[in-house]
Amino acid sequence: MPILHLILVAIVQGVTEFLPISSSGHLILLPNLTGLDDQGQVIDVAVHVGTLGAVVLYFRSDVARAFTGLLRIMRGNLDDADARLALGLIIATVPVVLAGMALKLSGSNDALRSVAVVGWTTLIFGIVLYWADQSGGEEKTADAWSLKDALIMGILQVLALIPGTSRSGITITAARKLGYARSDAARLAMLMSIPTILASGTLLGLEVAFAMDTAVARDAGIAAVFSFVAALAALAIMMRLLKTVSFTPYVIYRIALGVVLLLVAYI
What we know:
Blueprint: H1 3-18, H2 23-34, H3 41-58, H4 60-74, H5 81-106, H6 115-135, H7 147-157, H8 167-177, H9 182-208, H10 214-241, H11 248-266
Helix pairs in contact: 1-2, 1-3, 1-10, 2-6, 2-11, 3-9, 3-10, 4-5, 5-7, 5-9, 6-8, 6-11, 7-8, 8-9
């Protein structure tokens, strides 16, 4: 696979994975604008590994807390704050894992990957994000994340299985409407991404594990590195901007992207 193609796909995926702007929308638009071939599942797994590494590194203190909490849950201690964080992440992840497995087994996931579907979901859920961001409160913090809110966010995360919805976008939307401050909403959405990316990446990885040769492994390594760097930079910039800026710039971008995708689909 050409090195420039690898780097382009890795950067696009890395930058858009955690921003509420739909990575699938960009990856579908990319070949339409450039004429490049689909990167394939091996590279998909690689860029997922890269973005997973970035979010784990950026939120390493929260990840350490969640891991500690998981160990405490296994010992039967559910009252600790770390244990509640770990339990919240488990509860929030179960719905999307079950729904994702059902789509995979039924073969319905491929039917949703049309440019038209991505265009409409990018546009519609961008508007929904604006509504939630403007009407949501600021009274809740990530440290006070309740199990009820974790379940609600987890159920809505299932919508991200429809390409173009944006996993981070729909979970941030849910958190803002539930009353979490902007930076806390983003923090919860990013933490929820870790078990979700891990689950989907493992599933894809099992499918391609025996199909890799030296050249493919080299390409995967390059893609993982560049997606890691791109995702880490995107995360740092977004979390810094959210201290002073709303999600409106991302909404404007989503609406513009949605319109472009719909023009590609229908013209």
